[in-house]
Structures are given as structure tokens and as C-alpha cells.
From TrEMBL:
Species annotation: marine sediment metagenome
GO molecular function: RNA nuclease activity
Residues covered by the NYN domain: 3-96
Residue ranges of the TM segments: none
Protein name (record): NYN domain-containing protein
Length: 111
């Protein structure tokens, strides 16, 4: 709910948002969308021009490798360099960037 404005804006710009019910396991929120994102990205790669994957999760390394081979990967955006999976970094190569490196360029200023 807090980020609904962001989701609405992304959809208005043409991004497809995939929502998934979450569950709480041992006090931790789980939304396990990994298999869905990988399957949809791989089976529908002819439908989209480029993919931007926002994750720090090494489970997406195989998807990143696949998209690079298909010339479909635009970028991988990870949150923090120190929290990013080494598998994802290795698979992404020069395609990866980190939000903590981009925060000054992405910061919103109200004038």
C-alpha cells in the first residue's frame, strides 16, 4: 500500500507489474515470485524488447545468463553492493548496477 503510487506510475510508463500474495513465515514476509518471473521472462522473451531485473538474489543468475544470450537484458539493478549475491554479480558482469551508487542521480528534489 505504501508504494502504490510507484506501482501506478510504473504501469503508466508501460511496465508490467506482477503481484503475488505474501505469506509470513517465522515473522518474515515471503512473496516467492522467483519461479514466476523466471518462467514468464524466458517463455515470453519474444514479446518484450528488453528486461530490467531488480534483484540482489542469486536465484536469478540463470535468468540473467539466459537473457544475455538472447540479447534481451538491459540491466540488473541490485539494492546494495554488500548484500548482492556473488552468483548474480558473476552472471551479470557489466549489466549490473547498485541503487546505493545511483541514489544521488535518482533522488527526488522538491523545489
Amino acid at each position: 500500500e505504501d508504494n502504490q503510487w510507484l506501482y501506478d506510475r510504473l504501469e503508466s510508463e508501460g511496465y508490467e507489474m506482477v503481484y503475488k500474495e505474501i505469506s509470513i513465515v517465522n515473522g518474515e514476509v515471503k512473496g516467492n515470485i522467483d519461479p514466476e518471473l523466471v518462467l514468464k521472462s524466458m517463455t515470453q522473451y519474444r514479446v518484450y524488447k528488453e528486461a530490467i531485473i531488480v534483484t540482489s538474489d542469486g536465484d536469478f543468475a540463470c535468468l540473467v545468463e539466459y537473457l544475455i544470450k538472447k540479447n534481451k537484458l538491459r540491466s540488473v539493478i541490485a539494492s546494495k553492493r554488500e548484500k548482492c549475491s556473488h552468483l548474480l554479480e558473476a552472471a551479470s558482469g557489466t549489466y549490473i548496477c547498485y541503487l546505493d551508487d545511483l541514489k544521488d542521480r535518482l533522488r527526488y528534489y522538491k523545489y
